[in-house]
Amino acid sequence: MKKNYHICLSGGDEVIFRDNEDYNRGFNSLAMALYKTDTVGLVESFMSTHCHLLVQTEDPDGFIRTFRNSYSKYFNCKYLREGKLGESKHFTLDVVGYHHLVAAASYVLRNPLHHGVISMPYAYP
Question: Which residue has the higher pLDDT, 37 or 14?
Answer without folding.
Answer: 37
